[in-house]
Amino acid sequence: MHELAVAQALVERVDAVIAQHQASTATLIRVRIGPLAGVVPELLATAFPLAAAGSRMEHAQLEFIHAPIQVRCRTCGAETEAAMNRLTCGACGDWHTQILSGDELLLESVELINDTPLDSPLSAHPNV
Amino acid sequence: MCDTCGCNLTPGNQHLAFKPVAKGATAVSVLKGLLAKNDDQAAHNREHFDRRGLLAINLMSSPGSGKTALLEATLVALKNEFTCAVIEGDLETENDAERIRAKGVQAHQIVTGTACHLDAHLVHNALHHMTLDGVDLLFIENVGNLVCPASFDLGQHLNVTLLSVTEGDDKPAKYPVMFRAADAMLLTKTDLLAVLDDFDCDKAEANLRNLANPAPVMRLSARKELDMEAWYAWLREQLAAQRARVAQGQSRRPAIQSDGQTYHSTTVC
Question: What is the value of ipTM here, to two decimals?
Answer without folding.
Answer: 0.79
